[in-house]
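Q: For a teaching session next week I want to show students how multiple molecules come together into a single three-dimensional assembly. I've collected the sequence lines for a complex. Could you give me the predicted structure tokens for the whole thing so I can convert them for display?
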Amino acid sequence: MSPILDAQGLNKAFGAVTAAQAVSAAIERDSVVGLIGTNGAGKTTFINMITGYLKPDSGSIRYEGRDITALPPRDISRLGICRSFQIPQLYSSLTVRENMLTALGIMLHNAGRGGFLSFGRPDVPGHDAPAEEAADRILARFGLSEHRDKNAQVLPGGMRKLLDIALTMAARPRVLLLDEPTSGVSAEEKFGIMELIMQAVKAEGATVIFVEHDMEVVSRFAGRVLAFYDGRIIADAPPEAVLKDAEVRRYVVGTLHA
Amino acid sequence: MSQIGPVLVDGVIYSAWLFIAAVGLTLVYGVMKILNVTHGSFYALGAYAGASLTGAWLAKGYPPMLSYAVLLGGAILVTLVFAPAIERGLLRFMYAKDEVVILLVTYALFLILEDTIKLIWGVNPYFVAEPYALLGSFEVGGLKYPTYNLILVGLALALSAGLAWVLHSTKVGKLLAAVIHDPEMSRALGVNVDRFYLVTFTLGCLLAALGGSFTAPTVSVVPGLGVDVIVLSFAVVVIGGLGSLPGAALGAVIVGLVRSVSVHYLPQVELFVIYSVMALVLAFRPRGLFGLAEPRKI
Amino acid sequence: MRPDRTPATLVAILAALALGGLVLPQWLLFILTIACAQGLVVLGLSLLLRAGLVSFGQALFYCIGAYTAGALSRAFGVSDLLAQMLAGTAAAAAVAFVLGFLLARYRGIFFGLLSLALSMIFYGLIVKSETLGSTDGFNLAKATLLGVRPDEAWVRYAVLLAAACLTLLAALLTHRFLRTPLGRLGPAIKDNEIRVEYMGASVRYAIHVNYVIAAALAGAGGALAATTVGHIDPEMAYWTTSGEFVFIAILAGSGSVIAPFLGALIFGAIHTTAYDLSPNTWQMSMGVALLAAIVFLPDGLWSLFTRLRAAGAGPK
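A: Of course. Below is the structure for the complete assembly, covering every listed component.
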């Protein structure tokens, strides 16, 4: 079966800094892929290129066979590739519910529903329900129901992360890129949060790529791991194999994980 | 082609006036990131102070040649009365807010100052032309120009030289560069950023007041004098680059020449052309002709 | 979801004006009409404010609306209020459609400065134009309403009523727009533009739409003002006019489509009373009021209503 997402030969340099060097990865449908590497190794650059925030200097990115290399974030999002952020990007003056309604509203708008001349409460494409119901459903799945009417600004760190990821669910993404989903979350909570996220996300049937620094989380949830170092992918295999790899031990993990 | 001489002379004189009027605005923006609408108020304050004090000076029979010092003194006095009070009393509490909000605060202050001027000096025009007429005139290409205008040119040159010297050759100038780049860091390193802001704001307002004061002998000083000056200064400063002193000079020269050409050949388009240049610069090079590469929003 | 009380409130206000207007003095009818005109401009401005953009050039469209009405009156003898307002709206919207391609790329102080520059360009054009009366401007004929020229004693009331109906329509349409997904994007854009793009919406498109609507409203307001005052001059495009609109917008807040009209009315009231009390200090009163609004009521007077309502509703 052809990969859902295929990156080939991506290169990106910022002046003297090489953020990506011949980065290639073919992502299989429905897989869960973990990206590991130290800070500055190129993981977020990889995500930024796939989601259109950065344009690679050379190389191509294909999504279901279609070339998406030059598309802006807006178009890539509409195609079904969504991302969450290392630092949660929320609408701070809006409530949790309003945040979600904004996301769902955009879905309606892009489908030509709920506009100036329409009446009643149209269903949000992909959700078979009007925006308010769909919002409550998604928020419930992420355990955010009780925070519905609170301003996004006052949410504690873990909840902000969850909301940030929940917002991507409005678009029913086919490919979901999560940038450090458990960063800023305390050690005991990491597994719980990741479990919650993966359940909610997998229920939608998405392919997941996530960046993670905690190797235990990676081992538990990823079926395949890409290890980054200095802009290159230095290992590409299931977690057990990657975490035993000598180069990975040296540059990414350290020798603590024997 | 015989028009070229007068066009250039007019252009130079007008450019000098524009530079003096606008340089304080770009200075304050460059250091404090504030577009100070009260800049126009200080221009008017300077004009009123200069005109009224000089009028009183001459009425008392004191030497007319010293009236230039009175113009200078008037500008300094009126600035020292109002500027520090505004900065310390109100503005400094607003620094954390969005730059558009701060602009609205200075706009509110402008409204207050417009009426403050009326309360102090009344609504009747002040017309004190002696300093203007005193120096006689000179001829260029068969046309007579008041020698007084050379004072404006001289003042503009002196100011630009002085400011350039302070910024590049003194310790204060170097500290100022640090404060501009990173006020937080400068504060952490022990620089008295608050004092820099106070001095910068006062200096910026003083420059506006000087512009008003030295222009006073050439016009009838009436309420609303500052209203045109603000928006024209905005144009000059935007064209040259917000925060850039060489930019203010370049902007002044461009606007001055453009205005001079239009006044001589096609007066109807004078304002149209000036603001079109402003819009074009904003459209194609928003940071201005000399502006530093600031990350422009989206 | 809270029931939408805005349409009912607007209709109630219209009814109050229709009935109360029968007994109000002429000068008050005039002020109320001007409040409608200014309110329209500020309504448009508040759309942009919601998206985080402060336009210092709405006077451009206000003036375009006014001069369109003036042109219709002088050149074509059309003095019908409805026609003038529609023409003013259309002309302003057309210009905004073109300018929007440029302006939608700017934010913050640059958006403000560019909008200012554009309005000053227009000012520069008309203030030097002999045909348009230079700094004096020119007069318009008295308004007619659907072919009828009202009696001298009734004209102010008739104009107010007609203006109020058209204003109601404009407010309802804007209110409707604000409840569509596109209309709701304003605060999101203000908070986090990048997230909006990542959610699949075009921020530039949304801003362009808001800009055109704001211009259309300003054009309608300008045409109304021109007819009501009976005179137009280039001052309507000057930066101080734009400043006044921004002032009212800050005072009112953008919490509801009713707020701008309330703000315009209060502005008119303060202006008249302050001016009557002491003509040389009314600007000072304005300045102080603006400062007070910025410092104590950053969300405008309307936020007082929402706070009272929230307090009245009791703990959640």
